[in-house]
Design a protein that fits this description.
There is one protein chain. By secondary structure, this protein is mostly helical. The termini are far apart. It has 2 domains: 90 residues; 71 residues, no CATH class.
Length: 169
């Protein structure tokens, strides 16, 4: 009887141990499935992050190139302003205007028309026949000869002379 009771207790202990072990295995398997799904999601998110970083780096490089191009254009504009300042600084327009008002008026009016045309071209106005047939920047527009080079570089005009306005100023 003691032997039967010991066998019965041991059998019950084994059944209890088996059942609790199986429950733990099921719980651990469920946790493992959850962790595997989370790892898969993290890998997807990581790939998206890597792709986003690559796009951001490409955009940064593009913006840096645009910034450098803009700085170069600003440098050109500063240079053009300095040339204009030097050109205007050579003359005392007030004294010249008193001495020869008709001449100064004509020169200023013609220069103003040319400068206004520069603004029109920069704003997208169509080129006239004289501008299309110009052989250099000075012939294109003496107040803004650099536009000729820009139009040549962008393919709007074709340089038939093989020279730029810097060589022909």
């Amino acid at each position: 009887m003691y032997t039967g009771l010991i066998i019965l207790v041991m059998g019950g202990g084994f059944v209890w141990y088996y059942n609790t072990t199986q429950a733990k295995i099921e719980t651990i398997t469920a946790y493992n499935a959850t962790l595997t799904a989370n790892v898969d999601r993290l890998e997807e998110v990581n790939l998206k992050n890597v792709d986003t970083i690559a796009k951001m780096e490409a955009n940064f490089e593009k913006q840096r190139d645009q910034y450098n191009e803009l700085q170069s254009k600003f440098g050109d504009i500063r240079s053009q302003n300095n040339k204009l300042r030097t050109r205007l600084g050579k003359h005392d327009l007030g004294a010249l205007g008193v001495a020869k008002p008709g001449l100064v008026e004509r020169v200023l009016n013609n220069a103003s028309k040319k400068v206004n045309r520069c603004f029109e071209i920069l704003s997208g106005a169509a080129l006239n026949d004289t501008e299309r047939s110009a052989k250099n920047g000075k012939a294109f527009n003496s107040e803004c000869p650099w536009i000729y080079d820009d139009l040549i570089a962008s393919g709007v005009l074709i340089d038939s002379s093989g020279a730029t306005s810097e060589n022909n100023n």
